[in-house]
Amino acid sequence: MVRLITHNLLACHAKGCTSNNFPLRFSNVKLALREADFNPDFIRGFLPRIEWDALVQASREIGDTSLPPERPEMLDDDFLKQLHHVLLEIHVDEGSMTCPNCEHVYPISSGIPNMLLAEHEIR
Fold first, then answer.
1. Are 106 and 27 in contact (CB under 8 A)?
2. For the chain, is the Cβ count within 10 Å smaller at the N or the C terminus?
C-alpha cells in the first residue's frame, strides 16, 4: 500500500532524471483510512528521516492539511498522533505519482505503485 511514510522515500529513477526528481506529485488519488497501532517511539525515531517539506506537500496533495508547514520543536502526544495518522493510516489505493522533473507517471492500482520502467527508460 502506498502510504506517505513510503512516498517520502520514493524518487523518480527514469534514465537521465537525476535532479528535481523528488518528491513525486500525487494526482487523481482515491484514499482509504486503515487504523494502525500507535507507537510514539517509532514515530519519534523515524521523524529525523522524514523530508518534512515533501511530507507536507504530499499530505496537502491528497487533501490532508493537518501537518504544520514547519517541523515542530515540541513533540507532544497530539502531534505524534497526527503524524502517525498521516504517515501510517492514510493509504493511497488508486491514482498516480508524477515526477516533477521528467513528468514520468507512476500509476497506483489497488494500493500498489508501479515503479517499473520500460527498457528504454532504465539508466
1. no
2. C
